[in-house]
Amino acid sequence: MISIQVLRGFAALLVVLVHSTLKAQSAGLGERVFEIGHSGVDLFFIISGFIMMMIGARENNFFLFMSKRITRVIPLYYIITTAALCIYLFNPSLINGNNGAISILHSYLLIPAQGKSFLLSVGWTLSYEMFFYIVFACIVFMKSSAKGIAACLILIALVVAGRYSSNVTVHNFMSIILFEFAIGIGCFYFYDYMSERLSEVQSAAVSTVFILIAIAWIGFQQDPIFTLFDNRVLELAIPMMFIFMAFCLCEFNFKKYKKAVPVRIMSYIGDASYSLYLTHLFALGIVSKTYAKLGVENYFVFVTTCVVVSVIGGILCYEVVEKRITAVLRNTIYRKPKKLNSGI
Fold it and tell me: Which keywords fit this entry according to its UniProt record (predicted)?
């Protein structure tokens, strides 16, 4: 779906924006932080839940399902993490700017460690991503109609269990954030039902309402009800859910205007979103060091440069590294054996 690719690009840019403004703040260039940019991660989780339902209907083998997910996520993550490790061993401050504890082992295992960070600070999201894949892989043998319901029930049970666990690792893994994958699954059922029943005009109208609800939800973040719950799912995932559904219902428009420059650009950034997500912190560090030496102190120039350099770096990584290793691994793992001639 083109709308999904555009949303991936949108989510990646949200994350880059919030980290760029945080970097500007730490450099003393301003206090404004694009807080809503944190929701890019929540949007990624919702997209994952939706996508797993789309492709999960065609899968029924645990090992094949997991091998596809692992080859998609782990190789590039290990390459970028190893690059971060080399930099860390040479100059720890370039990777660990806040001087906190870092666990190299846990960085590669993608298992959170109490009081310690990953070499790639964004790696924590991949811990949840891989955990969700394992959960979904456990029910791929079920009928397509039951997979989503079973996955949601398991996720809810895990979150409830995590709330009452005294084990830190279990508590971290079974965070309420897992609900966001369930939201994505729910969005799949909603889209699957509504897309066949709404006309283009009706879909556009419903999408408009969803966008307005998302804007209003974000606008009322300071309402006492939000501060009362202090819940990431409530504050960030819900508005992203409405935006996600709005985009999906407008898939017909994205297909109609797929050759339009904005759609092509955002779709391409969506293709490169994983590389962009993993590499953008390196770009921010380079821009920050360079501008400090040049004496540039303009907030908007700094943030804009961070975003542009991050996108360029992400695209380069996508074209030079990600696409190639993905192609090689797919050809190696999924290549069908050649039939041997009997010679008779």
Answer: Acyltransferase, Membrane, Transferase, Transmembrane, Transmembrane helix
